[in-house]
Amino acid sequence: MALDDKIAATRALLAQAAADGPAALANSLSAEDMVLSHMIATEGLAISVFTLDTGMLPPESLELIDAARDRWGLAIDIYRPDADAVSAYVANRGSAYAFYESLEARKACCAIRKVEPLGRALAGKKAWITGMRREQAESRAGLEPVEVDPARRMMKYNPLADWSWDDIVAYAAAHDVPMNALYARGYVSIGCGPCTRALRPGEHPRAARWWWEQDGAGKECGLHVAPISEGAPA
After folding, report:
1. Which one of 109, 110, 192, 221 is the catalytic residue?
2. Is residue 192 among the annotated active site residues?
3. Who contacts 170 (Cβ-Cβ below 8 Å, separation ≥6)?
C-alpha cells in the first residue's frame, strides 16, 4: 500500500477512535507517536494525549513534550510513577538499578514506572491509541489495527500497524514532525535511558531495549498483552 493510502487509513482510524471515545493516545515520545500526535493536532480530533514519565527518560525524549506544545499547541498530559512505590522498590532491592539483576526485577520496575501509571492515564477512557507497528518486534507480528485489550477490556487502536520505519521517517520529514535527537545517534527503539542503547549493525531493532537480556526481538515491558478477540469489549 502506498504511503498516501496508509495516511488516509490512519486518519480514518483516528477519527473512529475519537468517535468511540473518550479516547487517548499513549505518546511514548517515539517517532511513531509524534506522527500520530501531529495528525491528532492538525485534524483537531477529540483525542487526549499523554506520556508516561518514568523518571528515567532521556532528556532528548522529554524535550518533545515542549516541542508538541510549541509547534502544534498540543498539550501532553504527564503521568509519573507513585513515589512511595519507587522508594519501596529501591529499599527492598538495594538500588534503583536492580532491574539489571534479573528479568523479574526488571519487570517489577516496569510495573511501577509504566504499567501502574498507564492504568491511571486510561481511567475513564474507552479507546486507547498506540503507535505500535508489526515490524517492531516478533511479539507484534500479528498486530491488528483494531483490537480489544484483554487486561483493560477496552478498544485498542494501532493505526500504524502496517507502516514501515521508512514510512514513519518519510511522513515526519514531509510534515516537519520533531524527532528524538537520539535517532541520529543510532537509536531505533527508545525507552528509559538505562534500558536503551544505540543499535549495532545487524541487530533486530528491539535488541537495543533491555539489551542485557536474551530474546532481543520479542521483549516487552508489560504495557501490551496479546488481544483476546476483535470487536467491542465485553
Report:
1. 221
2. no
3. 3
Over pLDDT 70: what percentage of the chain?
91
Which position has the higher pLDDT, 233 or 209? 209
Q: Does residue 217 carry a pLDDT above 50?
A: no
* Spatial CB neighbours of 94, under 8 Å, sequence gap ≥ 6: none
State how far the alpha carbon of 22 is from the alpha carbons of 9, 50, 149, 155, 182, in Å: 20, 13, 16, 11, 33
What is the rounded CA–CA span in Å between residue 178 and residue 34?
7
Please, which residues have CB within 8 angstroms of residue 132's CB and are 6 or more apart in sequence? 32, 140, 143, 158, 160, 161, 224
Burial class (CB in 10 A: 0-12, 13-18, 19+), 184: exposed
Pairs from 208-213 (Cβ < 8 Å, separation ≥ 24): 210/106, 212/100, 213/103, 213/106
Mean pLDDT of the chain: 89
The model's pLDDT over 114-157, given as tens digits with 9 standing for 90+, comes to: 999 999 999 999 999 999 998 876 767 778 899 998 878 899 99
